[in-house]
Structures are given as C-alpha cells and as structure tokens.
User: Which sequence fits this backbone?
C-alpha cells in the first residue's frame, strides 16, 4: 500500500481521512501506546498494513522495542520517547503531541485486537486491488515478448493473493460481493482480429477435416458476432459430416439468421473463398486473443469489487474466485491447444499486439508464418 509522504505535526492533525480505516489505525496505535502489552493480542498485520508512513513507522517502532514495565510506563514517558525516536527515523514529522493525540482518541485499549482485524481487512482489500490492476496493466503491455505466459503469471499472482485473504478471512457460503459496473475497457482495434478470423473461416471452409483438430476453439473466442456465427456454422456442418464449402456455409448462415442484418451473401462468399495457412495456426491466434481479453475482464471485475469499501474480505474472496474461474477455463483450453502448460509450449506464442499491415500484406506474411 503506498504510504503518504512525511508530514509535519500540523499536517498530521489536519489529514482528511480518506477512509474510516484512518481512524481505526489511530485507535489501534493509541491502544498500543497506552497499554503496550496489548500487542501480544494483535496478529495478522505488519507495518505495511497501515495507510500512512507515519502510522507504519509508529507500529514498526512499537514492535521493535521491548514491552515496558506497566507500573513504570504509567508513571513516565521513557518508553514513549523511545518509540518516538525510532519512528522518526522513518517519519521525521512525527511529534510527541501526535502520540498524545493517538492515546486520547483511543476509546477502549482492550479493543486492540478488533482494531487490528479492521486494519488487516482494509489492507487485504488494497492488496487485491493492486494485484487486479497489475493484471490489467500486463494485458495491455505491448512490450512483452510472450504476453500469454506473463499474463497467466500475473493471474496466478492474483489468485495467490485471493488464497491468502481466504486463509485469513474464510469465505462464508452465499455471501456475494456488491457488483458495481467495472471501469470500461479501452476500445479494442478489431482490424487485425477481423483479418485473422476471416483467414480462419476461409481456411476451415477449404479444409473442413482440420476443424476437428481445434475443438478447443469456441465461437465466443472470435471477436465479431458474424465470425462467431460462421464458426458455429462450420463446426455444425463438420459434426454432421455434411458437405462444407462457401455455399453450404452461406446456406447454414441464412438458416441461423446471420444475414438478417443486411449482410450481403456475396460478401460472405468472398470472405470464405480466400484460405491461407493452417486452421490450427489461426485458431491458436484467436484463442490467444480470447485469453488476453478474458484476463482483462477478470482483472476489471476484481478491481470493481476491491474498489468498493463496502465489500468485506469474505465477499471479495467469493467474487474474485468466480472471476478467476473464467480465466482458468480459457487457460485450460489454451493448454490443450498448445500441448502443455504455457512454460512448456511447442513454440513461443506469437504476439498479437502490433498494429496490422494492409490486408494484402497481412495475407502474404501471415500465410508464410502459418505454414512454417
């Protein structure tokens, strides 16, 4: 969790608490300053669990020093002075008056374990939010040489955070998080996807026997509704052992209502008449694109859950695991397509980040790559 910069006394007293946890942290620190033996009852948090550098420094100092004798602590400020000296090494703006203020705002020192649990819960929410943001950022990182492997590694890291939170806050059955609308994703450029999906459809039409080799590819993996519908037409005809060519696919498309939006039959025929490369290559490209898009949706859903402070850790675990299940399902199909786990692929997955060349150039270049 990012810490606030070092602050002067007047700043510390005037910091507007961005969240109720700021008050909780003050109460916890006040309890520990007033009755240091309460630290023995506190678990599950570290200095990094606090929302400001000043609070983190104070908690670290309290943990560092031996507990004072209760009788002496009630009479002198010796231990408090030592806490202040050590904590100012990390937060120079701390003052004795702020420590006094913390003691004053603590309602019940005996409630320190409850305050610590609240701090732990808020820190868990921020950890989950950070991991989800990192997953979304990785999906959009155009510099990655192997985007699938890196994105799946981030998904694993996010899942590990969820598991850790679940160990600390076991989920309760049936407790679902509030589901605010996730932030909108950046509008994708479907130009390259459309070209490659057209090549997939045309090549599968020309070589229907190869359709069975890409059973891991689902219609929803394709980015355009028409392409998804045509792929369903192709797989249906192949499964029925019926003739497959541009005309039979066009007829099946009409039966499924794919031409109802004014799509010209001749356009569909032309799309299906330009095969290149292999069905497996274009299918793998489509699946890779689908996996990355699913990972982004997963990250954004979890971002939305974790960004709502009303969601408890129990709810966050349930919601995050459901979102991660979507990525896991596509990941399984990706592993089936590539013959193993991402780190044991037959070949490096091609990047789908670069902008597409012109259609003619794309056909020639991609045909060469696909037939290697």
Assistant:
């Amino acid at each position: 969790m990012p810490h606030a910069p070092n602050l002067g006394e007047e700043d510390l007293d005037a910091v507007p608490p961005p969240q109720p946890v700021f008050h909780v942290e003050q109460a916890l620190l006040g309890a520990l300053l007033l009755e240091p033996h309460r630290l023995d009852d506190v678990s599950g948090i570290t200095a990094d669990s606090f929302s400001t550098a000043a609070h983190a420094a104070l908690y670290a100092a309290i943990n560092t020093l031996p507990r004072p004798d209760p009788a002496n602590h009630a009479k002198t400020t010796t231990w408090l002075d030592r806490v202040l000296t050590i904590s100012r090494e990390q937060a120079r703006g701390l003052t004795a008056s702020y420590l006094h203020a913390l003691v004053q705002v603590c309602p019940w020192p005996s409630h320190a374990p409850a305050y610590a649990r609240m701090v732990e819960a808020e820190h868990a929410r921020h950890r989950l939010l950070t991991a989800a943001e990192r997953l979304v950022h990785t999906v959009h990182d155009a510099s990655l040489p192997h985007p699938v492997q890196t994105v799946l590694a981030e998904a694993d890291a996010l899942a590990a955070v969820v598991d850790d939170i679940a160990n600390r806050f076991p989920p309760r059955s049936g407790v679902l998080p509030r589901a605010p609308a996730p932030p909108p994703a950046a509008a994708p450029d479907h130009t390259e996807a459309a070209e490659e999906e057209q090549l997939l459809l045309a090549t599968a039409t020309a070589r229907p026997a190869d359709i069975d080799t890409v059973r891991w590819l689902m219609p929803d993996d394709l980015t355009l509704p028409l392409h998804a519908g045509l792929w369903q037409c192709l797989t249906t005809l192949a499964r029925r052992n019926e003739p497959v060519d541009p005309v039979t696919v066009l007829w099946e498309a009409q039966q499924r209502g794919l031409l109802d939006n004014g799509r010209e039959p001749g356009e569909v025929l032309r799309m299906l008449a330009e095969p290149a490369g292999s069905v497996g290559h274009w299918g793998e490209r489509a699946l890779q694109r689908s996996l990355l898009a699913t990972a982004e949706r997963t990250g954004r859903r979890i971002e939305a859950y974790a960004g709502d402070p009303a969601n408890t850790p129990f709810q966050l675990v349930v919601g995050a695991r459901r979102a991660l299940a979507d990525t896991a399902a596509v990941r399984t199909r990706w592993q089936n397509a590539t013959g193993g786990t991402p780190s044991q692929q037959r070949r490096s997955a091609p990047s789908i980040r670069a902008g597409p060349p012109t259609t003619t150039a794309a056909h020639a270049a991609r045909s060469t790559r696909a037939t290697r």
